[in-house]
């Protein structure tokens, strides 16, 4: 899966953001809504929209964000329910620090597919500083669906620590590092000893959530 991942680390917070999410390869005509398959003339529009989404992803990977944005917009003109076009517009907006635009795009994608984990994750990252409680709720949805979601657990730990819920934060950091030991460097210092994956004999197999480094 081709992904563009932005990694920005500060002393306390690791901003691990999900990048491009491409179309599924096995069954392409399913992007308008989970499990739906357009037929007749609508199918041609959906197929053309998917081609534009693929083109937009290639443009984005080549840093042609203006061209990518145009391709995703054209895709939505053909298929307004294309969740990947909305999501990838959010990625561009988030990369350009246009927070309101990014959140609006992720909300559009989530209206189409409420369980779209990459959109849930990136929206949670946007909300960590402004609405920590909402970010915690979103991150708990992700880890509830995928216990191996390492970077979601990392951000959940950071959000819980911000709220002073240190015991829960410690547990979340522990899950994150056991799932992906490379995340140990992003755990706040006061939690590092308790989250050290070498202390656990039941470490989870390496893996992270859909749409991030997994």
Outline of the structure:
With 214 residues, the chain is mainly alpha-helical. Helix content is 57%, strand content 4%.
Which short descriptors sum up this protein?
single chain, 214 residues, mainly alpha, 9 helices
Identify the overall geometry. elongated
Strand order of the largest sheet: 1-2
- Structural class category: mainly alpha
Number of strands: 2
Ends apart, CA distance between termini = 10 Å
Sheet having the most strands:
2 strands, antiparallel
Instruction: Catalogue the unreliable spans.
Output: 1-15, 23-34, 200-214
- Helix share of residues? 55-70%
Radius of gyration: 18 Å
Order of helices and strands: EEHHHHHHHHH
Secondary structure tally, helices = 9
| Average residue pLDDT | 79
Portion of residues in beta strands equals under 5%
Report on the architecture of this protein:
This protein is mostly helical. Helices cover 57% and strands 4% of the residues. The protein has a two-stranded antiparallel sheet with strand order 1-2. The longest helix is centred in the N-terminal third of the chain and has 21 residues, at 41-61. The termini are close together. The model is unreliable at 1-15, 23-34 and 200-214 (pLDDT under 50).
């Amino acid at each position: 899966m081709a992904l563009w991942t932005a990694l920005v680390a500060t002393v306390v917070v690791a901003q691990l953001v999900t990048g491009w999410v491409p179309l599924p390869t096995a069954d392409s005509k399913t992007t308008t809504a989970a499990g739906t398959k357009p037929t007749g003339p609508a199918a041609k529009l959906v197929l053309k929209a998917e081609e534009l989404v693929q083109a937009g992803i290639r443009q984005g990977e080549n840093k042609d964000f203006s061209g990518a944005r145009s391709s995703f917009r054209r895709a939505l003109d053909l298929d307004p329910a294309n969740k990947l076009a909305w999501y990838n517009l959010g990625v561009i907006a988030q990369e350009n620090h246009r927070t309101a635009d990014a959140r609006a795009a992720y909300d559009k994608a989530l209206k189409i597919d409420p369980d779209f984990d990459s959109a849930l994750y990136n929206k949670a990252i946007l909300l960590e500083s402004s609405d920590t409680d909402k970010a915690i709720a979103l991150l708990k949805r992700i880890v509830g669906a995928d216990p191996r979601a390492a970077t979601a657990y990392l951000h959940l730990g950071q959000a819980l620590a911000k709220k002073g819920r240190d015991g829960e934060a410690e547990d979340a950091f522990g899950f994150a590092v056991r799932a992906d030991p490379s995340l140990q460097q992003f755990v706040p210092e006061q939690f590092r000893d308790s989250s050290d994956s070498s202390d656990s004999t039941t470490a989870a197999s390496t893996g992270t959530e859909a749409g991030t480094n997994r």
